[in-house]
Amino acid sequence: MTSFRPDMSVEEAISIFPIGVNEVEVFNESGEFAGYLTLESLFGAVQQGELTKPIRHFILTNAPVQSLEQHSISYSQFQSFFQSKLCRIVLNSLYDGVYITDGSGITLFINKAYERITGIKEEEVKGKHMSHLVEQGIISKSASLETIRTKKPVTLIQTIRNERKIIVSATPVFSSSNEVMYVVNSVRDITELIRLKHELDSQKLSYQKISQNSLFPEQTGFQNLVIGPSTFPIFQLANKVAKTDAKILLQGETGVGKSLIAKYIHSRSSRSNKIFMELNCGAIPEHLVEAELFGYEPGSFTGALREGKIGIFEKANGGTLFLDEIGDLPLELQVKLLKVVEENRFMRVGSTEMREVDVRLITATHRDLASLVREGAFREDLYYRLNIVTFDVPPLRERKEEIVPLLEMYLKEFNKKYNENKKMTPECIEWLTNYSWPGNIRELANLVERLVVTTFHDTIDVGDLPPFIQQIFPASKPKTLKEAVAELERSLIIDALKKHGTTRAAAKFLGISQSAIVQKMKKLHIRLEN
Ligand SMILES: Nc1ncnc2c1ncn2[C@@H]1O[C@H](COP(=O)(O)OP(=O)(O)OP(=O)(O)O)[C@@H](O)[C@H]1O
After folding, report:
1. Where would I find the H helices in 348-437?
2. HEC string for 133-146
3. C-alpha of residue 445 to centroid of ligand 1, in Å
4. Are strands 295-296 and 276-280 parallel, antiparallel or unpaired?
5. Sign of CA dihedral 19, 25, 28, 29
6. Domain extent for 21
7. Are residues 143 and 170 in the same domain?
8. Residue 436, domain member (yes or no)
9. What is the DSSP string of 194-216?
10. What is the pLDDT of residue 219?
11. Predicted interface score ipTM higher than 0.95
12. Nearest Cα residue to 184 out of 66, 120, 89, 97
């Protein structure tokens, strides 16, 4: 018989868990008894996405108790209950699959969730004996037959048509004469969670490989970067052109990392010990852009400082100047910029004296400069001068492989900042991977910070995501009755605590005792200090 060791992974344990038993004994290396591993706790581990964690985290030291209820409800009473409309409505509203057989193993009913999870239709199995379904290869083994044989509840892992893996828990319903009248199987899907976990693991792996690359040695100060397969070539080229003074144009949506790439180029250039200056041409009023860029002489226009002002070109002398939103630069200033680009010379506003500067220019835009040129809104000569090297930085929705590492990186950062220990469920991560992130990495960082600060429990789940994300994935996860009730309880308790301040006052408002509210808060992970 296979032995279970505490350091074995959850996934390994699932694959060798014997049929027909609810729990196994776990022994450590020296042969000492370490505890019991139940299918229920294994399933809990799978739900938390902990497939690679050692089973020692999930073993119980005391033997699990199984209680079997016996009752005096007759066969015909059950028969009419199972055939009733009410029974169908209730069972079809559950998120978990339900499969009911009679005491001989003949299929009586399957609910909609079972059809969804397994792809098996009711007409395929209704009236058929479980052994027939096993013979036909529809299911790998039958929990119902095991239960009928042993007269005990059975939990096992079943394969459907050699593909999907599900966990089936079969519970016998006894007659007053202790015969098995029915078997009620509850069914949960694990293939999806296993697939998700593997996907996350492989994404993490490729990210680690890339981030350990020599392009990012510790001393660059860029160790908190996520570089996926589609941005790796960008950083590789940035690293190469950093050594030259070639003009660089960065194109991409807001929040994709243009400013960060500009800083990276500066940090890898011979100017790295000189200044890096940044100006967003779209963020300052048009009539002030010239003065900001080139400075002005004393009293050169109304509202100007008496002593005059140094422009950003002069401030950046010797270093790198990053001009963001260059597409917003007024046409008349484009001529002046062209002069600096071509001759490294310019005049302050109100001056006739030419000043020389030595600046490495990097520009960026979220607009399509080529089409601005065609429309006559951007000078063609300047356009060709600025984009000796062009980087098209893709939006986050086109670099999906970076989303998981970014989520992890920001979770770590904000957990540290706010002294928290939050993690995300695999399902939550999957939703966020499929979200389109119009605000790109800036939006992602902002959302993670908000979730870390505002959630009350350590595990962030899809229910914690903002409504605009939840609306995109409306039907992806119907709730079980238990989950819906817990969610409602949670929000009622939080509202009452917010309104009334203390557990005593909130309990009074909700019409329950103080100890009941404290117990519920514990169960629902609600903390008063939050
Ligand atoms: N590869 C990356 N890894 C980790 N964080 C990143 C990465 N790229 C960008 N960020 C972070 O995302 C945020 C937005 O980046 P950045 O300001 O460079 O974008 P941008 O394209 O210049 O935006 P905008 O056009 O609005 O100025 C910053 O907090 C930055 O640190």
Report:
1. 369-375, 380-386, 403-417, 426-434
2. HHHCCCECCCHHHH
3. 10
4. unpaired
5. negative
6. 10-58
7. yes
8. no
9. HHHHHHHHHHHHHHHHHHTSTTS
10. 47
11. yes
12. 97
Max intra-chain CA distance, the chain = 109
- Angle, helices 426-434 vs 403-417, to 10°: value is 120
DSSP-assigned beta bridge partners for residue 186: 98, 169
Residue 54 burial by Cβ neighbours in a 10 Å radius (0-12, 13-18, 19+): middle
CATH for 126:
3.30.450.20
Tokens 């014997």 correspond to what residue? 18
* DSSP-assigned beta bridge partners for residue 35: 26
Q: Is the CB of 465 under 6 A from ligand 1?
A: no
Output the CA 160–ligand 1 centroid distance in Å: 45
User: Measuring from atom 5 of ligand 1, which residue has the nearest CA?
Assistant: 225
Distance between CA atoms of residues 380 and 206, nearest Å: 41
Is residue 41 domain-shared with residue 147, that is, in the same domain? Answer: no
Whether 520 lines ligand 1, by a CB cut-off of 6 Å, is no
**How many residues does this entry show for the chain?**
530
Q: Is residue 287 part of a domain?
A: yes
Residue 3 lies in a domain: no
- Residue 5: Cβ-neighbour burial (10 angstroms; 0-12, 13-18, 19+): middle
Question: pLDDT 10s per residue in the chain (530 long)?
Answer: 568 899 988 878 877 777 556 788 898 888 888 888 887 787 777 767 677 788 988 888 776 655 445 555 667 777 777 777 778 888 888 878 899 998 999 999 999 999 988 999 999 999 999 999 999 889 988 999 999 998 888 877 788 887 777 888 888 888 777 788 889 998 887 766 666 666 666 666 566 555 555 555 554 566 677 888 888 889 889 989 999 989 999 999 999 999 999 999 998 899 999 999 999 998 888 778 888 899 888 776 666 666 778 899 999 999 999 999 999 999 889 998 998 998 888 888 888 888 999 999 999 999 989 999 999 999 999 999 998 899 999 999 999 888 988 998 899 999 999 999 998 887 788 889 889 999 999 999 999 999 999 998 888 988 889 988 877 765 444 456 677 677 778 878 888 888 888 888 888 888 888 888 888 888 877 777 54
Distance 226 CA to ligand 1 centre (A): 11
Which residue from 168, 158, 102, 166 is spatially nearest to 134, judged by alpha carbons? 158
What is the tally of structural domains in the chain?
Answer: 4
**Helix (H, G, I), strand (E, B), or coil: what is residue 383?**
helix
Distance of CA 140 from the midpoint of ligand 1 (Å): 50
Cα gap 321→14, rounded to integer Å? 58
Amino acid at 516: A
Q: Pull the structure tokens for residue 1.
A: 């018989």
Rounded to two decimals, the pTM is: 0.60
Structure tokens at 352: 């006739």
Token digits for 345? 């010379």
Q: Is residue 327 part of a domain?
A: yes
Query: Are both 236 and 326 inside the same structural domain?
Result: yes
Alpha carbon 113 to its chain's center: 25
